[in-house]
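User: Show me sequence and structure for the first protein, then do the same for the second.

Assistant: Starting with the first protein.
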Amino acid sequence: MALPFSLLLLLASLAGLTPLAIDMYLPSLPAIARDLDVPVSQAQLTISVFLAGFALGQLLYGPLADSVGRKPVMLGGLGLFTLASIGCAFANSIETLMAFRLLQAIGGAAGSVVLNALLRDMFERDMFARIMSMVILVMTLAPLVAPIVGGYLLLVGHWHSIFVLLAIIGALVSVALALRIPETLKPEHRQPFRLWPVLQNYGRVLRHRAALGYIGCGAMTTAAMFAFISGSPLVYIELYDVPAEHYGLLFAMNIVLMMVLTFGNSRLVPRLGSDRLLKAGLTTAALAAVVLLFCGFTGFGGLWALVPAVMVLIAQISLVGANSMAGLLSHFPEAAGTASALAGTTRFGLGAVATFAVNASHAVSALPMTLVMSLCAWLALASYWLLVRPALAAAGRK
């Protein structure tokens, strides 16, 4: 079953809202701190708050998507995202900004859950991984341009204008998806929204060894990315004196390599299978982490040694993200929304922990960021070897 390009663009727009909401305001964090008269580390906590809200939202949306359908959940979440973005635009204190960022994240969480479940309704495992790679390939345009747009909005306006733009984008995506996206969950496959069955479904996933491994692979790799997102404004702008408007260009270099690997993944999945590509991505990330931590600990090579190591590690999310999700959902096709929600909650929950760990040190140093990123990459690989690999061996697969 082919996916029409217009539908691909809409799904990518849905997936792109979260990276837009995270990445577009990264260059403005020092400006937000100055404007609201708080330390930069406190402004960075708005990232942790967003990730925590995103994690909590997915726990709710997953069972709802399996109960009332994909489309109502998607549109309700987008409405909340849009309204909360307006609230962020008018925030005049760090507490108000954090509160609306929390609501913005809870609304945006619907898109991630619905996207995974919707595609799982339409495609089998390896085709899911291939289509997801195509969606991610188009979606990566969002984090590619978001920091650049945010940096230049600061030159011509104020940081509040970034959230005005996010509200406009959220409203446009809501209208387009309402008109174009069909309901994919058949009535006979809907599960009543009752607390005990929901907890049972979560328990089934948590008791499944391979599922835990797939969740761990995706979550720890994503946590490494969020450690970078949280720490890079301080490291690049404050430590290495990169201008805010140029920060987005360095950030975009990561996304370009991600796009290359995403395209390659979509082509290689039919030939190699999602599990082999997952292992390749995890191994590469773990090796890049060795170089990254060395650079962070010694300062060797400065910015231009740090950037390539970051690029290689972050780019592996293209392989790990789609293939770990394909592996997870292949075990729970009848509860794709719930399984996807649990995976998403774990990813963004650990992402919040990673950003908090990076921000716990107030030193202007690359070491906190590189240390957290490296630990996450190594734990992701450990999840594969300790949990996924034994399950594959038992099933007679490599």
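Switching to the second protein now.
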Amino acid sequence: MVSQAPNRGSGPGLAGDVLLIFMPTPDAGYSWPDAGWIAATEARYPGLQVRWLPQKDPATGKPRTPEELPAEVWEGVTLLCSSWAPPARLIPHVRFIQAPSAGADRWLLHEAYKDPRVTLCTGNGTHATQIAEWVIGVWLMWRHRFLAFAEHMKTGSGFEKQDAHDVLESTGSRVGILGYGAIGRQVARLCTGLGMEVYAYTRTERATAEARRDESFRVPNTGDPAGELPARWFHGSDAAALNGFLAQDLDLLVVAAPLTAVTTGLLNTEQFAVLGHRPASTYVVNVARGPVVDTAALMTALESGQIAGAALDVTDPEPLPADHALWKAPNVFITPHVSWQSQKRWGRALEMLELNLQRMAAGEPLVNVVNKEHNY
């Protein structure tokens, strides 16, 4: 089937647009597709047609890919909100893509992304709260030795008060946040509440108050929109600049940078050696993407004691094979890329879409637009 070009004007407004929503169906708390939301949205924007398809096949209950949707679903689609990047042939007329994910990495090689007429927006900020909670959770788990006590519970032995003599509190500790976007800013907020000192690292310099502001989607009363929390800011796009940041006696390093060609392997043998100038002192947490950290270098750092330990919600490869040596590396805690999940996650994704539809209809700048030069 050849998709017909939609009949819509060239100015602001959504008349003639076709919006396709294809996202996972939450297990509880939502009735998706939401017929009421569809009706209200079409009424709010006359001439807009909304199609909402659940990821799970209604007949089988099994997840399906974009290619498995009926062909007519893709007819004339100009606006897309999807957790998956469909083949370019299915969306020849698309002009706007709302990705629920924080990063744009799954779109970077897509033909639609390369088209200068197509705007891609991410879900940056919609899951900053739960990811930041995951970061603080694993940090406190490490500092308070929760895993050790959990093991004592299983065996019923060695469960003594003196085992807690090396418990460490967070007050006065220093956290370095590599990538100071929505996630990094909420981590900074929580760390500040624990009495920690925050250092931030960004690709470009943030020397002015205006440069330090963040205009991403933000849950009310969260984050650091004005960029006021870091005690020190660092910046750069080369190894020397990054190493200077890593040499700042960090107790906690939170990796929250987007995955691009530049950030792939950003933390490797050289960087772990810098962290190792204080052996077994820095706890490394990765909530970015697995390839941002070189896995072999990380394992060496764990095994040699260059770093204190690591908590990984993402790995390279991902999923991590059952026989991979990283599972048995010392002082490592791994979860299967779940830090972004919460009962409010998909509702916020819908809020993000609503906000951009509103701005698009009014001819206003959209939120979370990906910079195609830097790919985030």
